[in-house]
Amino acid sequence: MGLDKPAVDESYLTRTLVDLVRVDSSNPALTPGAPGEAAVGEVVAAAMATLGLEVAIHALGPQRVNVVGIRRGRGGGRSLLWNGHLDTVGVQGMAAPFSAEVRNGRLYGRGSQDMKGSMAAMLAAVKALNDAGLTLDGDLIVAGVADEEHASIGTADLVRHYRADAAIVTEPTDLALCRAHRGFIWFAVESTGRAAHGSRYAEGVDAIMHMGRFLAELDKLEQELRARPPHPLAGPPSLHASTIQGGTELSVYPAHCRLEVERRTVPGETVAQAAQELQAICDRLQAADPTVRLSVTPFLDRGPFAVAADAPIVQVVERHLAQRLGRAPAQVGASFWTDAALLAEAGMDTVLVGPVGGGLHSAEEWVDLRSLVDLAAVLAATAREFCAGS
Fold first, then answer.
1. Any domain includes 202
2. How far apart are CA 331 and CA 344, in angstroms?
3. Between vectors from CA 262 to CA 257 and to CA 264, what angle results, nearest 5°?
4. Which residues of 10-35 are buried (b: 16+ CB within 10 A; e: fewer)?
5. Which sign, positive or negative, has the C-alpha torsion 227, 303, 144, 32?
6. Does 3 fall in a domain?
7. Same domain as 88, residue 28
8. pLDDT value of position 3
9. pLDDT (tens digit, 9 = 90+) per residue, 216-255?
């Protein structure tokens, strides 16, 4: 049986997705007390074992796990990694977050599109390879990872244990071929003043007022960033002021103010470059007024991502998407960050492709089941060609 049009077991795919969506895997880093990935990881591990994969569960902390299954090749071929995350955002405002209800070709529930639907499609693609009796030359690695919705501790750990010649991240892309996305840096900006009674204007130094000067300059930088020539796929860089804290009581000059800033980066930008832009604001303000004391510290960063159009994995996925959809797929960039950047930094050519859906991170999330069948078919056909085999 050929796999130019892979034979995907649609009922298996839907049943598997129902099983996944009905398990709460909200990320505890986002929702205190949430259960994490352990329970849904058990479901995924059992499905992988049933499909004949070599299964490993990697504990990353209380209730935090990666689940990895390997379909061994006979040797001599290229290896391929499929990556999807097991965690979801919280369920606040959702009437029935774990119903997995199917209506009009859509399956509803938290994580249905982002991205348990993709996890089910990856498992269904393995089943399609099995049902066709195909042995690949290279290994196929299927990874369900933790914490993508927060700090990506899952994929950060994954790349310490696994390598492949290429990777596919199945984040939702509406079946477009995503070749680039922006990164992000979280900065803490600290303003230091001098506490004094509110009546003692000659003694007090207002840290919040000084931060206000910084914010005025930050607004100018934000406008300048978005006016820069954009990356052809990922768009322009940007930033926003995220949180601010300062002061103790009404009748006291505030001695401290902390601002947190998120800076979105495009391919080619660095942490050092972005930090220097903020430091330049501090330097100007401090030169104009010696009572101003400001500091800038990056405390978390994830790099931007881009892959060349002529990378072998891009060309193989593009070819099978075109065959499946009957048209050339759109090649796009994303404004958000994904685990693709960590896989690329680890030396794996990586591309993103995922299903159609809506309501990500909102009160009504859904995924289009037909698009999941298409995704599974493309994954199976890509594995057959990229890893070779018969």
1. yes
2. 18
3. 155
4. eebbbebbbbbbebbbbbbbebeebb
5. negative
6. no
7. yes
8. 44
9. 999 999 999 999 999 999 999 999 999 999 999 999 999 9
